[in-house]
Specification:
The chain has 285 residues and is α/β, with parallel strands linked by helices. The chain has a single domain (12-276), classed as TIM Barrel (Alpha-Beta Barrel), CATH 3.20.20. It is built from 10 helices and 10 strands. Helix 9 links the parallel strand 8 (189-196) and strand 9. The chain starts with 13 loop residues before the first helix and ends in a 24-residue tail after the last strand. The protein binds iron/sulfur cluster. Residues 57, 59-61, 64, 66, 99-100, 131 line the site of iron/sulfur cluster.
Length: 285
């Protein structure tokens, strides 16, 4: 039985249908593919997160609802399709993510760059939620040089749970991705996010926030893990709102500009609200 703070009123579906009609059927959203609990709310506000590079991932994170297996051909028209869709939806701030494409030499960085440039050409601000590109600086440079407003890379969980939750990723590598972006380009906001309720201890959450602060992360999102289907990992527990408040307080006391922390918070939830948040200049980053 879900606790009351995890009961959510889902807005009626009219806008879902309208948005889906507006979107080219070949355009994917992570909202739909990952079965996000906020889909109804976000679509009712005409916000969504586009997912590029297909609908099949080369990795197998235990918490993720996205299909795993043989990835699809890259749709070379996708950058323009997404820019046109964003314009049609009247979006001013656009979030783009992708599956992880370890099968590609550049991990998909060039395709990300084309999507960012197509959106920038329409005068839209862009947040990209990127994979780790296996830590490749040349792939990260390709994305950085396309000048997105925010580069987001999720740390997803605490290091002690990586082998169970995120076996093909590496905690230190993900920290290095965030550090490299901030060192290479200070004017790009960096952001990261993770889930709780997977078996982590509170001290581990504080330690992750310290690590993210250490690498100059500007924004952090923390949300409750909720299984995308019955076949996925069960939550170890439902973290109460007051604990999310403690994480926010602690993270912001370290100097992280904004910590979005709550049961339904997700990586790109209310992403556009972060733009305009005063970001203190980091010493040495
Ligand atoms: S890398 Fe991303 S899309 Fe792939 S399984 Fe993990 S969370 Fe899902």
């Amino acid at each position: 039985m879900l606790p009351s703070f995890l009961i959510k009123r889902i807005p009626k579906g009219e806008n879902l249908k309208k948005i889906r009609k507006l979107l080219d059927p070949s355009i994917h959203t992570v909202c739909e593919s990952a079965k996000c609990p906020n889909l109804g709310e976000c679509f009712s506000k005409s916000t969504l997160t586009f997912m590029v590079l297909g609908n099949v991932c080369t990795r197998n994170c235990a918490f993720c609802g996205i299909e795993k297996g043989k990835p699809e051909e890259i749709d070379l028209d996708e950058p323009q399709k997404i820019a046109n869709a964003a314009e049609a939806l009247g979006l001013k701030f656009v979030v783009v993510t992708s599956v992880t494409r370890d099968d590609l030499e550049d991990g998909g960085a060039n395709h990300f760059s084309k999507v960012i440039r197509a959106l920038n050409d329409k005068g839209l601000q862009v947040e990209v939620l990127i994979p780790d590109f296996k830590g490749s600086h040349s792939s990260l440079d390709i994305v950085i040089n396309a000048n997105p407003r925010v580069i987001n890379h999720n740390i997803e969980t605490v290091p002690s749970l990586y082998s169970k939750i995120r076996p093909m990723a590496d905690y230190q590598r993900s920290l290095k991705v965030l550090k490299y972006v901030k060192e290479r380009e200070k004017n790009i906001y960096t952001k990261s996010g993770f889930m709780v309720g997977l078996g982590e201890r509170e001290q581990e959450v504080f330690d992750v926030l310290k690590d993210l602060r250490e690498v100059g992360t500007d924004f952090v999102t923390i949300g409750q893990y909720l299984p995308p289907s019955r076949n996925h990992l069960k939550p170890q527990r439902y973290v109460p709102p007051e604990e999310f408040d403690r994480y926010k307080e602690f993270g912001e006391s370290l100097g992280i500009a904004k910590v979005f922390s709550g049961p339904f918070v997700r990586s790109s939830y209310q992403a556009e609200e972060l733009i305009g948040v005063e970001v203190p200049r980091h010493q040495g980053t």
